[in-house]
Amino acid sequence: MSICEMLYDYQKEILNKFKDRNSLGLFLDMGLGKTPLSLAFCEYNKIDKIIVITINSKYLENEEEGGSWKRWIKKSNIDYKIKDKKDVEFDNKNEFLIINYESLFSRKKDAKEKVRLNDNINKFIKSCKNKKVAIILDESHKVKTSNSLQTLSVFKLQKELSLTSSSLHTYLLTGTPFTQSYLDLYTQLKLLGLNMTKTYFIDEYCVRANIAGLMGWQQPIVGYKNINELYRLIHKYAITIKSKEVLKLPEQVFKEFITPFSYHFNLLTSEKGAEKIIKKELESRGVKNELTNSVRVINNPFYRNIEYPNFEWLAETAGQMRLRCREMSIGFQGNKDNYKWYDCKRGELLKKFLEENRDNYVIFYNYTPELFLIYEIAEKLKYNIDIYCGEIKSLYFYDEYSKLKEEDRINHKNNIIISNFASGSTGMNWQLYNKCILFSIPLFKDYEQSLKRVHRVGQKEMVFYYIFYGNNFLDKSMLKALKENKQYDEKMFKMELNNFNNI
Q: Mean pLDDT across the chain, nearest whole number?
């Protein structure tokens, strides 16, 4: 059986409608099967050579992992030989090269070229002479920055293959074509054939500020215009589909768990503070002071520096302050090598929840100290623990669970996947679990993706999301931004912080 024959009806409709296109953006919602669909286009067009550029977690997946590129290409009726970034020899046979974005280019500087492709990529290009070739760009929003090395290298690869091959097909795959602004679309549409300068694109669809002293091209983008026209432009080069338009996936249920007010979060974010509270905190650290126990409001020495009089985690810049506030809203300060928990209420709430509601869970977190805390809690409760993050990618218990017969799975409700948003929110297929915990609030670009790890094709149960957040202005405003489909940014944070202090 070929990949084309294995497609769902809606996928077959897409294939039949766009099969003769040499370039296409598959901007489909997460879980709609962009991987098999893109390979079905290659199969239909009898492509000789395929190069897939993907994120590292998808590159590392082997043939045994469901939904992996290597597993799907083995289902093709064309016998492709699988190659990866370690291979340096290519021949005239059908070949399937899969690499991560970082392996596409060389970091060796060359004064003559803006970007230099890696040697094995150049050898692959040479092997494509007079062949039908396809470039598949997985998670194509990774090339949103037009002057980044990985974006420049993709353009160079496309240009070189267009000169070498007999025909070149380009497929861009993403569920989030823009993560921060509509400007993210420009380079992706350019790869699909858009004949428009970036300046013209900005003039047509973006609204600039009018700040005195700045040239027109220096003015920051503050809004967007001609949105309907922009959507029509997108649909000239790409297809966009949401899950609810083609699939009857189970219902999603969201439950919120709010942790009590954090005394230390208030100290970190308040410019002024009650003298009595500040005196007590100073004394707890052995700092001599001449404060009284009055109820006066005075300058707070812990503002931006919770470890006063030490300066280990001083937040000097707005960016550092935002980071420290996000950390403190969870309850800690620091990094994976050196951190300190000030408030463990969120961890206590998680422990109580997991103890009283034993089941299989995917737990997402933002920062490494959260991983250590969640792991310790799950281990004490004797859960089977998988970890999926930059340093560790172990899915042993999930894989074992997937091998069980459906009737046997009911007796195996004791597994947890602990994953950070950066690694696990894209490309993973964990739909055998139907419960997901967001231990801390992510940015919107990771939020939508993380929800789809369990709510995708193959999910048969109602999906539950448990969102943990703190009773503070930061978590509340970040959660509000998620519900409004907005990316919580520096500007929004500064406004919330100022409002908090003014009040």
A: 88
